């Protein structure tokens, strides 16, 4: 059985790599890896950790390219590959432009789509934008839905997805974290001088498209936090998006306890998790990853599709206003009992066996369709 895995961003690579690796151990399966090139260098470092060489390496990303341009470029190229390779199944993960383009293309070629990380919802089509609508559209296309949590399953059931096609398996990002802890090369030595054992390490990331108008308020909160607390050290891998970097230059003040660095490889990023006291982010995947290291997360977004983390207490949804972000930061940095509850809360996103469950399903699917 041939299964095509189509990916283009680093988060997609992190989540699909454990599944691809496990499937390669099955002699009756041929995983076909198609790399669209949305995050070429960032994704390549993840695939290298898992010793995965893409079968097709596309170069679809151009400077300042819009999401619709990525999709328009991807569809005909992916279609040509799928027509030539004739896979039995197409696997996509999450909610990126690559995810939607691949699922849309597979639908037109009548190839069943399995959607990994299915059922996440905010039910606001513009938050996060455009991801919320991509994943809802992929749900309508997909033949099988691998949901990380029971809540994700309930979302799909409310949308009239047949329960027999929904499988709660956890999120493969936790599989990837466990693998990287055991197999990844040593992290970048340049990071070590930024990690001060006598200070609380704050890991900061920002990149959301819908946050661009409010990014200044996030950075103003960071400025105030650094000035108010002399026991914090901030490491900020700055996203390569030039729009993000323009906001950083405009609104984030230079400080000797603020380290603005280029994006780091994933092994080094997980190393930062292991030393972090707190994460401040508008990312989606980090909301799942940081709790695996018992690190609380301040989410600088107006809503999150990962409501399980908010309910569990691992995530604090702080919005995008300076005052609400500072309130969350102040509470975590000054109320020890509150911090300890957030750090000790159980991670609802998986136990490291998601890829095993997905491969088991594929084997059963193959046996039923022979």
From TrEMBL:
<keyword id="KW-0413">Isomerase</keyword>
<dbReference type="Pfam" id="PF02350">
    <property type="entry name" value="Epimerase_2"/>
</dbReference>
<dbReference type="InterPro" id="IPR003331">
    <property type="entry name" value="UDP_GlcNAc_Epimerase_2_dom"/>
</dbReference>
<feature type="domain" description="UDP-N-acetylglucosamine 2-epimerase">
    <location>
        <begin position="22"/>
        <end position="363"/>
    </location>
</feature>
<protein>
    <recommendedName>
        <fullName>UDP-N-acetylglucosamine 2-epimerase (non-hydrolyzing)</fullName>
        <ecNumber>5.1.3.14</ecNumber>
    </recommendedName>
</protein>
<dbReference type="InterPro" id="IPR029767">
    <property type="entry name" value="WecB-like"/>
</dbReference>
<dbReference type="GO" id="GO:0008761">
    <property type="term" value="F:UDP-N-acetylglucosamine 2-epimerase activity"/>
</dbReference>
<comment type="similarity">
    <text>Belongs to the UDP-N-acetylglucosamine 2-epimerase family.</text>
</comment>
């Amino acid at each position: 059985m041939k299964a095509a895995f189509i990916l283009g961003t680093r988060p997609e690579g992190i989540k699909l790599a454990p599944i691809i690796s496990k499937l390669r151990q099955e002699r009756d399966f041929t995983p076909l890896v198609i790399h669209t090139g949305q995050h070429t260098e960032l994704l390549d470092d993840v695939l290298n950790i898992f010793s995965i060489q893409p079968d097709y390496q596309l170069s679809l990303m151009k400077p300042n390219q819009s999401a619709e341009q990525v999709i328009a470029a991807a569809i005909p190229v992916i279609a040509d590959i799928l027509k030539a390779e004739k896979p039995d199944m197409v696997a996509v993960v999450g909610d990126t432009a690559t995810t939607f383009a691949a699922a849309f293309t597979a639908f037109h070629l009548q190839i069943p789509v399995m959607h990994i990380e299915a059922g996440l919802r905010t039910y606001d089509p513009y938050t996060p934008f455009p991801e919320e609508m991509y994943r809802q559209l992929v749900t309508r296309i997909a033949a099988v839905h691998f949901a990380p949590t029971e809540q994700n399953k309930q979302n799909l059931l409310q949308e009239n997805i047949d329960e027999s096609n929904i499988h709660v398996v956890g999120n493969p990002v936790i599989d990837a974290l466990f693998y990287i802890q055991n197999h990844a090369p040593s992290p970048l030595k340049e990071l070590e001088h930024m990690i001060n054992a006598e200070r609380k390490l704050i890991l900061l990331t920002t990149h959301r498209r819908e946050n661009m108008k409010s990014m200044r308020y996030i950075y103003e909160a960071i400025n105030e936090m650094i000035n108010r607390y002399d026991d914090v050290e901030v490491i900020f891998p700055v996203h390569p998006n030039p729009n993000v970097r323009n906001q950083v230059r405009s609104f984030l003040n230079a400080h000797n306890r603020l380290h603005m660095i280029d994006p780091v490889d994933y092994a080094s990023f997980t190393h930062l998790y292991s030393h972090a006291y707190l994460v401040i982010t508008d990312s989606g995947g980090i909301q799942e990853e940081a709790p695996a290291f018992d690190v609380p997360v301040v989410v600088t977004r107006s809503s999150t599709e990962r409501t399980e983390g908010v309910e569990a207490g691992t995530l604090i949804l702080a919005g995008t206003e300076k005052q609400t972000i500072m309130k969350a930061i102040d509470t975590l940095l000054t109320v020890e009992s509150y911090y300890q509850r957030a750090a000790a809360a159980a991670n609802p996103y998986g136990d490291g066996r998601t890829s095993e469950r997905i491969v088991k399903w594929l084997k059963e699917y193959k046996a039923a369709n022979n």
